[in-house]
Every structure is written in structure tokens, then in C-alpha cells.
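REQUEST ID: PR-0412
SUBMITTED BY: lab tech R.K.
PRIORITY: routine
TASK: structure prediction, single protein chain
INPUT:
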Amino acid sequence: MKVMLGNIIAIYRKELQNYFVSPVAYAIAGFFWLIAGVFFTAILLGQEGVIRQAALMDIQVQQTGVVMPPVDVPYQFLQFFLGFMGQLSLYILPILSMGLYAEERKSRTLELLATSPITNWAVAVGKLLGVLTFFATMMLPILACELIALSAANPPMPLSVPLLGHLGLLLLAASVLSLGMFISSLTDSTILAAIITFVVVVFLSVIDLLASGVGGPVWQVLGSLSLLKPYANLVRGVVDTSNLVLFASYIILGVFLTAQSIETLRFQRS
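STATUS: complete
OUTPUT:
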């Protein structure tokens, strides 16, 4: 166990170092920050933003005298923004995961990795933790902006709401990255890995909508595999054990399939 943990940490450090010295990773992060910043400003301060809409509602109440329920601006902002971040991440995460194994295949180092004493599970877990840490690092500047905005809320928002929302975003990211890592292990083309991962992730995100439209027991089961539905529950502050189990299942399934994929390669080489 101690040896496996040491191997996971070694792979994790190597993977994380690769991201922090990669110009492509910084370009992805820059694009991510730009889009997230634009929508952060628009959702909070734009013409259709939550603050302006709340102000217009107050004016309407004063003019008409009709009593309406107060608008929870911090909660609505967090709902809209984290909902958008979940959608944006579906475009970014396949790009982050595309090179996890495809680059190793292209540079002919995957054979060395497959025949090394390090287990396939340790390599897969180390790589997944590395890319997940890089994504979490990308979130830090955005998280700082959220904290500044939410600190102005009066009364203060319960800390559990943003914590659950960001936990959901990390679980969503880990699920997508785990599936993307498996797809990356099947090809030496990073572009192909990103495209296939994106298609799979989009399908798993809208599968509940397809299921409700088609109907039938099979589609009802498939609809429960939706990635965005459990994420939306966590963003709303709803903790459902089945949602956490679904995310954990995607993460473990991705690592398992990746390990089996590399094991197949090891068997072919032997």
C-alpha cells in the first residue's frame, strides 16, 4: 500500500508539472478565465443581471404596491453562474484530458509505462489527480471573485451553499476527466480523444432530456445517468446520496477502464 501511494504521488507530481510548464495549458486557462469573467460580470452586473433585475422588481413593487417575495440576489447569482460554469467546463475538460495517454502513445513512452513495475491503477489515479488539481487551480481566481461578490451579501449567504456548489463542480470535473482519460488511452490522436470525449459528455449531459422525451423503462434508466442533473442538485444545495454515488461511479469506471486498456496493451506487447 505504501509503495502504491508513493507511485501515485510520483505520477501525480509528474503530471501536474507537465501542465504547469505547458503553453497549451496556459492558453486553455486564459480562455477559461476570459469566458468565465465575461459571464461573471454579465450575470451579476449586466443589463439582464441579477442585481438590475432585483432593482427593477423593487421599483415595480413601489409603483404598483403589489407585495412580491423578496429576491435572494446572492443565491440567484450563484445558481446562474455555477450553472454556466458547469456548461463551460464540458468544453474545457475534454481538452485538458485529451493528452493524458494519447501523448504517451504518440511519444512511444506508453509501452515503457505499461511494462514498468508501477501498476496501471496507480498511473491512472496519479494522472487523474494531476489534471483535476490543475483544473481546481484554474478555478482559484474565479473563486476569489465569487468570494468578493458574495461577501457583500446582507444577510450573509450560508457557507454550505457555495461549498456544495463547488464540490459539485469538482465532482463533475473528476467524472468527465476520468472518462476522457479512458478515451485518451485508446488513441494516439489528442484531437480525436477530445472530440470523442466531448461527444460522450454532451450525450451524458442531455440524456435525461432525451429520456423524458422518448419515455419507456430503458430510457428512464439511461436518464438517471445524466451528468448535469446531479450537478444541478448540488448547486441548489440539495445533497442526495444517489448523486454522489453516480459521480463516484463515473470516476471509478473511468479509472478502471483506463487500467484495463493499458493492461490490454501490456498483454499485446508481451
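NOTES: The two ends are 26 Å apart (CA to CA).
REVIEWED BY: pending
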